[in-house]
Design a protein that fits this description.
elongated, single chain, mainly alpha, 2% strand, two-stranded antiparallel ribbon, 2 strands
Length: 294
């Protein structure tokens, strides 16, 4: 995309990159009407450091149309790609994930979810992208625009992973989410459609909650561990029966959960240990639904 933008002599504005990512996902490209819109892009020339005052950089302040004698070499330059495929072990992508992570050592390093998206992109992830733009979801996490590093996508992924496969959870969380993402490449479109409607029904059960209901009082920030526990408690029975969630979350019970000593311990220290994951699911089921974890 950097080469594409350079040739087009347009550069995306930083505060518009989330919007442009959605445009690209929907269209498979950046349409010309968007590319030429100054609301989203700016024109630019290369800004390169000088070697010495007597030896200015020959490419400084140039753009694609003014490269002159360098343009021919630029157009014929080979773009090299290296394809890495893991053949063994067959059902464990940890090696290729680690290789990808080590190769990702220059420029701006990718976050774990960005690497995950590169390795395991699927129709399931397309669904997560869609859910991530819902106003009701943005209200829950308290941030209007999607995160550039996909932290909110990871939150959704973690919620579904715990809901669907909590019994097989083993720390670390990174490996658990990697394995879950790989498995989701084989999930049927019918099941993906169900999971989307299930999440929408969950959002409806949150409609009577106050703002920042999933924020901790101590940090005043959205807490992923709290969200995953509440999401699990609300949706586990419905998921087992492949139906939608109907019972709204009781604000008073949610407040009781947030003040529960065992729950607080499980979301504030060693949050990805198997014991604490299980403990907060148990407390959420008990307080919010008056059920036991089964």
């Amino acid at each position: 995309m950097s080469i594409f933008y350079f040739i087009k002599q347009r550069f995306p504005k930083k505060d518009k990159r989330n919007f442009l990512r959605r445009v690209f996902e929907e269209n498979g490209k950046i349409p010309n009407n968007v590319l030429n819109d100054d609301e989203y892009f700016t024109s630019f020339n290369l800004q390169l450091p000088v070697n010495t005052p007597q030896q200015p950089n020959k490419l400084n302040k140039l753009n694609y149309s003014t490269l002159s004698e360098y343009k021919f070499a630029f157009d014929l330059r080979t773009i090299r790609n290296v394809f890495i495929k893991q053949n063994f072990p067959e059902n464990d992508d940890s090696c290729i994930y680690e290789i990808f992570n080590r190769l990702n050592s220059g420029g701006i390093n990718l976050k774990p979810q960005e690497i995950r998206m590169s390795l395991y992109y699927s129709d399931f992830y397309t669904m997560l992208y869609k859910l991530n733009t819902l106003p009701e979801w943005r209200k829950i996490i308290g941030v209007n625009e999607p995160d550039l590093n996909m932290k909110d996508i990871e939150t959704l992924l973690r919620g579904f992973a715990i809901l669907m496969e909590w019994e097989g959870y083993q720390s670390s969380m990174v490996k658990f989410l990697n394995d879950f993402s790989r498995k989701c490449k084989r999930v049927s479109k019918e099941q993906i459609n169900y999971l989307e409607t299930l999440f929408n029904s969950f959002l409806l059960t949150c409609s009577n909650l106050p703002e920042k209901a999933f924020y901790l009082k101590t940090t005043k920030k959205f807490n992923i561990s709290m969200f995953e526990a509440v999401f699990f408690a609300q949706c586990s029975s419905a998921f087992k029966e492949q139906r939608l969630v109907e019972r709204k979350i009781n604000p008073e019970k949610l407040e009781s959960l947030k003040n529960d000593g065992e729950f607080i311990t499980a979301i504030q220290s060693q949050t990805t240990s198997k014991e604490n994951v299980k403990k907060r699911l148990e407390r959420a089921m008990s307080i919010l639904c008056e059920q036991t974890l089964s």
